[in-house]
Amino acid sequence: MGRYINSNKLNTSNVVKVILYIVGGLTGAVNLFMLMFFFFSFLPDPENRNDMGINFAVGAFFAVNLAVSILMIVIGLGIGKKVKRTQFYASIFESDTDGIVDKQELTDQTGMQIFDVLKELDVLITRSYLRNCALRRGSDPAVLLTVDNAVSGKFVTAAVKCPACGGVVQIRKGTTATCEYCGAVVKG
Ligand SMILES: [Zn+2]
To answer: pTM for the full model?
Structure first.
């Protein structure tokens, strides 16, 4: 599904994300536990102190390991965010009717500055999360959608009545779009 979403990339990303969460979480828990254990060896009260002879080198070892575990989870979160943003941008592209998502549309739909939108899209496109689209830079920045252009030379759209509000929405055949009047999902 999705002509602008690279499904293989998203599926792989989701698997990698879950692995990072699991490995990072499990090793993080162990390393945190060992680090606590290390600190307990320095308690002034001998009653509560363990005398396992754990030294600073061992403590540093677990501290570094814990940092790596946290890094894995942070990277997993980053991948998860990219997946979500990919789906978000793809839904914007799907509801576009003329093949060009211009600056106004991009800033309206994202609520972000155009500079930040282009920066984010650049990452998603160059890393192959999004496909069938390209960035136009310069004084009139936009996203150029390429799928239908390649087939017919133009975007084929049809007027569809929104089931929720009755407004007429232009949608490409076989795609789902968001009603521009009420926000309901409309099928083309
Ligand atoms: Zn509507």
So the answer is: 0.70
